[in-house]
Amino acid sequence: MADVYDPIEVLPASGLRAMHEDLFAEHLGYVMSHSEFYQRKFGGAAARVRSLDQLADLPFTTKAEVRESLLARPPLGLHAAAPLESIVQIQSSSGTTGMPTFVGATSEDIATWNAMGARVFYANGFRRCDWVMHAYAMGRGFVGGLVNVEHLQHLGCCVIPLGAESGTERLLRAIEHLQPVAMCATPSMVSHLGTAAPEVLGKPARELSVRKISAGGEPGAGEPAIRAQMESLWAADVRDMMGGADFGSTYWAECDHKDGMHLCSQAALHVEIVAPETLETLPIEEGATGEVVYTTLARRATPLIRYRMGDLVTVTATGCDCGRTGYRIKAHGRTDDMLIVRGVNVFPAAIKEVVVGLRPRTTGYLKIDIDFPGHSTYEPLKLRVEVAGGDTEAFPDLAGEIQQAIRSALSVGTAVSLVTEGAIERPGTQKEKLVERIAA
User: Fold this and answer.
1) Residue 115 in 3-state DSSP?
2) Which residues share a beta bridge with 366?
3) Is 173 in contact with 166 (CB distance < 8 Å)?
4) Which of 52, 70, 156, 214 is deepest in the core (most CB within 10 A)?
5) Pairing state of beta strands 307-317 and 289-296?
6) Neighbouring C-beta atoms of residue 428, cutoff 10 Å
7) For residues 224-233, b (16+ Cβ closer than 10 Å) or e, as one string?
């Protein structure tokens, strides 16, 4: 018997497809009856869509359209489909790519979110009665805050919701005192706390109680060198997870095989992968690479049809020895994060992976300084990389070695300048920003 949170995770593909077809038929009817945004956007075209195979006949929904909808009819937009008196919670995106988007939820929506989130944390190794340090940001309505707490409580965990706002010392001292077995946080926060533990507590993080870590909110946990750094610091099992505010925090997760994140959104989301260049829907098969597009199947407050969140992924497998039938992906980053250097596509997280691989001479912290408009350049990327210790002259060949390592791994030219340890800000309540735009 597969060790899963919910039997739906091992449902054969044919059975899940039939379930999703039924849910989609009901949901599209609901959306077209209650959402003014989609009534205007789809018009009569929606009536001609009778199955998920015909979903591609409908246009995409974009972030810009959702923001315009929110401004056109506050508080929840023209796309909202439930009466305001039925809303029990409002969450917000982080706003890292523009104006934050506000997401409403009914009690039914919260139940759907919690079902997905519990599957995610269970796949990540968390279990009922585990004590969990929650080190994501708790403030500003960030969906990774309260919503993840609710997911963990739904799973049956005891949550310690101090949040990133508590600061490095308080988080570490709470871990030392309360002895949680698990932690959830961004990869950059996990690494930061692990690195800071000896100075704050007088002992390495590996001597603390945390043995399970769920890391998400930014790329990194699925990159071998970054994962290895976190696991070494904490002597813990680190697993990747992914999601977004628009659909209830989290719905992709690594199992104990740690080779890509399983789809955990059964009966809640229909997922397409579309080719970045043509936007045509790709078959779900190993090696398929494209942008993820989501359609809600059971959303009352703020449904979204064919929504382009902007995440670029590769399907790593369509099955797994763990028994889950949800296919697995590896995330590369957001389409708006991608840089193009002399025609070569590169994601900041991939550059960080190379820099982290050169520890302990580097701290793993870096900034990519963008002094050109847009995302494309024919000049080498300018990088600031932190050197461990206070002396940038201690490793005279390191800058050249970093440049060569990045070129070998990613086929991208860089101009590296070394900075002292601590010169680059550490993660706090915000996600790690690897890119900084500077005046040309």
Assistant:
1) helix
2) 385
3) no
4) 214
5) antiparallel
6) 15
7) ebbbebbbeb
Compute CA distances 156 → 130, 152, 322, 340, whole Å.
8, 6, 22, 45
pLDDT at 141 over 70: no
Q: How confident is the model at residue 173 (pLDDT cuts 50, 70, 90)?
A: very high
In this structure, what DSSP letter does residue 125 have?
T
pTM of the model: 0.85
| CA-based torsion, 181, 259, 96, 414: positive or negative | positive
pLDDT at res. 223: 87
Per-residue pLDDT band for 58 (boundaries 50, 70, 90) equals very high
Amino acid at 287: G
Q: Where does residue 401 rank: exposed (0-12), middle (13-18), buried (19+ CB within 10 A)?
A: middle
Handedness of CA 81, 83, 88, 90 (dihedral sign): positive
Residue 351 has pLDDT above 80, yes or no: yes
> Above 80 in pLDDT, residue 410?
yes
List own/partner pairs for 5-9 with CB under 8 A and 24 or more apart. Answer: 5/118, 5/119, 5/122, 5/123, 5/155, 6/115, 6/118, 6/119, 6/266, 8/266, 8/267, 9/119, 9/262, 9/264, 9/266, 9/323, 9/324, 9/325, 9/326
- The residue type of 420 is T
DSSP reduced 3-state for 179: coil
Q: Which two tokens stand for residue 109?
A: 């929506």
Backbone phi and psi for residue 9, each to the nearest 5 degrees, phi listed first: -70, -20
Q: 387 and 418 in contact (C-beta within 8 Å)?
A: yes
Q: Which residues pair with 272 in a beta bridge?
A: 293
Read off the pLDDT of residues 64-113 as tens digits, 9 standing for 90 and up: 999 999 999 999 999 999 999 999 999 887 555 556 788 999 999 999 99
Residue 100 is predicted with a pLDDT of 74
Secondary structure E strands in 279-320: 289-296, 307-317
Return the structure tokens found at 215: 């890391």
- Buried b / exposed e across 111-141, counting CB within 10 Å, b at 16+? ebbbbbbbbbbbbbbbeeebbbbbbbbbeeb
Q: Rounded CA gap, 424 and 366, in Å?
A: 7
The whole-angstrom separation of Cα 394 and Cα 318 is 47
